[in-house]
């Protein structure tokens, strides 16, 4: 019988279960939706039980498709920073808080006042902002004072699913670290950060290395998922780190760019570094790190422009708008956009940040706005990439792109032109699931190393090389870099006036 490895991608809106053979080909796949709730401004929540139901639904369909194939093992990749508070048995005590939830601005300020920005960043690898779970936990306990006394466990998505599958409350280092409560230099929970969150070590999962054997599917979990009882479950990683592995990036300095709801780029590093230009995560390959940058308004901003501002519908309007944008010169005829629609993390870490559109004139139309948006996203990515290069002291020659935005040839070409670097499409649309499956392939001995797994299981698609006309973006980028710093104080005052 043929052998397959299963990668799970438990994302923000769906759980995907994908079975791959030893060559990285998809043998079977299925997905099940997960509802995302926005009960009040700034609040983003989910029912953690829906993660388990979605995994069960997708898993049963995949197992039905596999027939006689032998499943070697499974690993989970997942949405990061999302967590749920449970009792001692793992039953949720309330809704899970999703990574987008930002009701913890006061807690960020309190943590900075207590520990200092530099100490928080160097210890956790993440400059203080509303994204890490640490501040969300603090905010949750502040809103619900009686909850902290009832807490059995605080679980990331990986820990919740691994516990349900195996009966062992454990999670991967590369899954827990985005929570912001680990001592990244030591590779363990930080007593100092746990205390800041109001937690004890017994209230967080056991930590294991990515790729480590966590346990085996229990009889009860087998009935829910259709996975064979006794199937090996290996520790996975956060979706960004898994996607890097699934894109075949196993060498230091290799970079990926996920053009999704957010624009997320990561560069592999063999040693721990911290700084304000990026946040530091453990890589999916044990012993490695990822220096990651995040722009929270990627395709989200595109959707806003097309649907809310222009009153049109995606994806129907996309081809027409891209055609209009293609006919417009470099620089969008003097229009420039800074895409901070959802605030800004690196390099400014500013809760008051907002989008900027400058240079509007009467001749500008929808095509100009659309091109200015793509150019603004690309110039923001250049800002991020330049900063990471400075930290690594090496040039990044190419970025492997994935996600919905990578399907746009115009967008990929503009990024290549603005960054003056090659942009190469990943060979699969399921890089996250593939990365978690590669962890299984190496841990189980199906492949002897990650280099071998990458050579066999990953591939590259179309490449976009910088064009000579792209050199005109150098002067535009010099302007772009001045806009937000010049308007930062005014934007903060505008936000205060809203209160």
List the helices and strands and how they pair.
Elements lengths: L2 E8 L3 E7 L5 E8 L11 E2 L1 H19 L3 E9 L4 E4 L9 E2 L7 H11 L1 H8 L8 H11 L9 E4 H10 L3 E3 H4 L5 E2 L4 E2 L1 H7 L8 E3 L4 E4 L2 H7 L6 E7 H8 L8 E5 L3 E7 L9 E4 L6 E7 L3 H11 L8 H9 L9 E3 L17 E3 L7 H27 L5 E5 L6 H11 L2 E5 L4 H13 L6 H8 L2 E5 L8 H25 L2
Parallel strand pairs: 1-5, 5-14, 9-12, 15-21, 21-22
Antiparallel strand pairs: 1-2, 2-3, 4-7, 6-8, 10-11, 13-14, 15-16, 16-18, 17-18, 19-20, 22-23
| Strands side by side in the biggest sheet | 17-18-16-15-21-22-23
CATH architecture of the largest domain: 2-Layer Sandwich
Distance between the termini: 64 Å
Percent helix among the residues?
Answer: 25-40%
Q: Which stretches are poorly predicted, pLDDT < 50 over at least 5 residues? A: none
Q: What is the CATH fold-level name of the largest domain?
A: Nucleotidyltransferase, domain 5
Q: How large, in whole angstroms, is the Cα Rg?
A: 22 Å
SS field, number of helical segments: 16
Outline type: globular
Instruction: Assign the CATH class of the largest domain.
Output: Alpha Beta
- What kind of sheet is the major sheet? 7 strands, mixed
Q: What's the number of structural domains? A: 2
Which percent range describes the beta-strand content?
A: 15-25%
Going by CATH, the homologous superfamily of the largest domain would be: ATPase, nucleotide binding domain
Summed over residues and divided by their number, the pLDDT gives a mean of 94
Number of beta-strand segments: 23
Structural class category = alpha+beta
Oligomer description: single chain
